[in-house]
Amino acid sequence: MAIEIKQVSNRKELRAFIRFNYELYKDNAYSVPDLYDDMLNTFNKEKNAAFEFCEAEYFLAYKDNKLVGRVAAIINKKANETWNKKDVRFGWIDFIDDIEVSEALLKAVEQYGKTHGMENIQGPLGFTDFDAEGMLIEGFDQLSTMATIYNYPYYSEHIEKLGYVKDADWVEYQIYIPKDGVHDKHQRIADLVQKKYNIRIKKYTSGKKLAKDYGQAIFELMNEAYSPLYGYSALSQTQIQQYVKMYLPILDLKMVPLIIDQDDKLVGVGITMPSLSIALQKAKGRLLPFGWFHLARALFFGKSRIVDLLLVAVKPEYQNKGVNALLFSDLIPVYQKEGCIFAESNPELEMNGKVQAQWEYFETIQHKRRRAFVKKIN
């Protein structure tokens, strides 16, 4: 039978859109589900500040009256202006192993883009870099993270058969925590840059105080440090306020060093936290009735042996000068005390030598790769 594509038009259909991923991956040992309520807020035009400069529609695919796929069509106007492009993004794409389904979903996104004057389709990407991006093409037997997409191997096979080509790749590393403490050379570099540039580590014990003192500065630093990176669009003031409120209160502040200069201005920051992957699998997308317990246990009671490196940002004028060594000279003893075995780097653009250089003094394994694809709209 023909594939029927239906545009999401009500809350019931949006629930089906979100839950399709849970059903498709319910027996998969490596997929990490998003929290249902977080997804509702992400797709809500009234609650997601990205809709200040984005527009989107969501599509469901049916075959024999059964839901078999989903996709979001997104136009990030700010990113298009920044990079002088006319791109429509496809995101949150999932489908059964039937190329008629994947083709119909992507054609729906292409048609949406075409009617809005777009020239290319690219993805998988979200509204902004705060959403998971990149289709997994290596590492299908590796546990995913809360910040990344997990997908079956057949996804990229379908995409390539449909004429899409590589636009960008990200690599991911397992970074093993040194058992004997900070590497001597690593520590010497940290000590040297601290003296040379008159910078120091600052830590907080109160999320509210951190948000008040440096919440705005952290995300402004992100905008400055990440602006050259693939597809990046600067966070708006509304987004910054939203993210300060959303993320900073839940962090384990032992794992969040700030680097400040002699005037207490922010130079660099590392936002890391215990992995929530296993906890999110146990929660199965729900905080209630018991999902909150698994998440709290992972966050606050030291039960995770994996740490997620969520955000490392350094002011451009301090990059490649050893500042990252100062961050990790502070973090490594914390990780050791917490019993962490390795860290997940999360996605790094494969050509971003500045980021990958910071792992020089660690034992690492590059265990995952993901890709954004692109195609000209006919």
Task: Please tell me what the overall shape is.
Answer: globular
What string gives the helices and strands in order? EHHEEHEHEEHEHEHHEEHHEHEEHE
Low-confidence stretches: none
Helix content: 25-40%
The CATH superfamily label of the largest domain reads: Gcn5-related N-acetyltransferase (GNAT)
Rg over alpha carbons: 21 Å
Query: What is the name of the CATH class of the largest domain?
Result: Alpha Beta
Task: Please tally the β strands and state the result.
Answer: 14
Beta-strand proportion: 25-35%
Global mean pLDDT? 93
Please, could you describe this protein's structure?
The chain is globular and about 70 Å long. The protein has helices at 11-24, 36-42, 77-83, 99-115, 154-161, 184-196, 207-226, 237-247, 277-283, 291-300, 323-338, 353-356, and strands at 4-7, 54-63, 66-76, 87-95, 120-123, 135-138, 165-176, 200-202, 258-260, 266-274, 306-314, 342-344, 348-349, 363-376. Strands 1, 2, 3, 4, 5, 6, 7, 8, 9, 10, 11, 12, 13 and 14 form a 14-stranded mixed beta sheet that branches. It starts with a strand and ends with a strand. The longest helix has 20 residues, at 207-226. The protein is 35% helix and 26% strand. The protein folds into two domains: 4-169, Aminopeptidase (3-Layer(aba) Sandwich); 178-340, Gcn5-related N-acetyltransferase (GNAT) (Aminopeptidase), CATH 3.40.630. It is of the alpha+beta class and 378 residues long. It contains twelve helices and 14 strands.
